[in-house]
Design a protein that fits this description.
The chain is an alpha+beta fold. About 45% of the residues lie in helices and about 10% in strands. The protein is globular, with a radius of gyration of 22 Å.
Length: about 250
């Protein structure tokens, strides 16, 4: 059982388990800095929102890649961050619509909703405990995030791409918006039908996998190191020159 749990990512070590319990019940974490590397006071809410260290982007990208991988189990033509066709005089009714040539929703899947039609998805992971959401019900947080994504992409995708658009909103606590719920049910139904497995088992696996993924990404934001700055990347380093200049002639191949 433990081996299977580890293989599929359904496992936390003891430190991660304790952190998850403390975060779940609003208890203070031990061994965290008083201040973030960005200079702000450090707490869980700040850690989940702070862009320093790139953990917020990593969180988004890992959820995106997980969903794209699951969609690819049932659709053969799936693309991550596809480019939309450039606008050639088309006018968007909403001023908030994304009109630039670099517009890229998170996932494209041909035939997901209708044969031959492109379905586009854009993902957002929200922190419902943020100060800006203190007076807002979690359900309303999801609805507002969905509406914001729809205003950004829906009109362009429908009128220019002739496709469909669905915003996928998830929370750091493991919840999801109404349209995400509908998407998950349909995706699991497709996977269940194709793999000839029980639908309830498929949903249980999907939700558990997503829940553990989100929990580990929350822990990454909280425990990940933000202070170290890379002065050079591997792209900036000429390995061949260094080996020649330092006379490193040992062959390790």
């Amino acid at each position: 059982s433990s081996g299977i749990n580890a293989e599929y990512g359904f496992v936390l070590n003891k430190a991660e388990f304790r952190d998850c319990l403390r975060i779940r019940y609003g208890k203070e974490l031990t061994g965290v800095p008083a201040n973030c590397a960005c200079g702000s006071q450090f707490n869980v809410t700040h850690a989940l929102n702070c862009p320093k260290g790139g953990f917020v982007s990593i969180r988004h990208n890992e959820v995106r890649d997980f969903l794209a991988n699951m969609i690819s189990q049932v659709q053969s033509d799936v693309e991550v961050e596809p480019h939309l066709q450039p606008l050639e005089g088309e006018q968007m009714r909403l001023r908030s619509a994304i009109t630039g040539d670099q517009a890229r929703p998170d996932i494209r899947a041909r035939g997901f909703y209708r044969a031959g039609q492109q379905a586009y998805f854009d993902i957002k992971v929200v922190n419902p405990n943020s100060e800006s959401y203190v007076k807002t019900a979690t359900k309303k947080v999801y609805e507002n995030a969905e509406k914001q994504k729809i205003r950004s992409y829906n009109e362009r995708i429908i009128n220019v791409e002739r496709g469909s658009f669905v915003p996928l909103i998830f929370s750091t606590s493991g919840g999801m918006g109404r349209q995400s719920e509908t998407f998950v049910k349909l995706l699991c139904n497709k996977i269940s039908y194709k793999s000839r497995q029980n639908y309830n088992d498929t949903v249980r696996y999907f939700r558990t996998k997503l829940s553990f993924l989100l929990r580990k990404l929350v822990l990454l934001c909280v425990r990940g190191t933000r202070a170290i700055k890379q002065t050079k990347t591997c792209e900036d380093t000429d390995f061949q020159y260094i080996c020649f200049a330092s006379k490193l002639n040992v062959n390790f191949s």
